[in-house]
Specification:
With 109 residues, this protein is mostly helical. The chain is built from four helices and no strands. The mean pLDDT is 92. Pfam families: LAB_N (PF07578).
Length: 109
């Protein structure tokens, strides 16, 4: 059992400590921004007592997704690049639709 823990400790050190650099830091910042969108959505839904997707969800998605795309490009990970790249179009489109809806409401007032 001690040997298992030693291997696990070595692996943890290699993955999380030994290779730590500015890119890893950017990756963690990006992932934090990307994850915050779920906190924002959850809090808004709890307050409304129904499922709500606030505008901040899409902004956190865009910022976190863009930073994760930069990280994925630097890491040369084609799966991560494709996933984050496609997501950016969805986030931008949703923000565009929200802006158009607000313009339409402003024009009718």
């Amino acid at each position: 059992m001690a040997e298992l823990f030693a291997h696990l400790a070595d692996w943890f050190h290699d993955v999380f400590v030994k290779q730590f650099d500015g890119w890893i830091l950017l990756g963690f910042v990006a992932q934090t921004c990307f994850s915050m969108r779920f906190m924002v959505q959850w809090i808004a839904s709890e307050k409304a007592k129904r499922s709500v997707v606030p505008v901040a969800f899409w902004f956190f998605s865009l910022i976190g997704g863009a930073l994760l795309l930069v990280y994925a490009i630097q890491r040369q990970d084609p799966v991560f690049i494709a996933g984050q790249g496609m997501g950016l179009f969805i986030y931008i489109r949703n923000l565009w639709l929200i802006a158009n809806e607000k313009k339409a409401i402003t024009k009718t007032d």
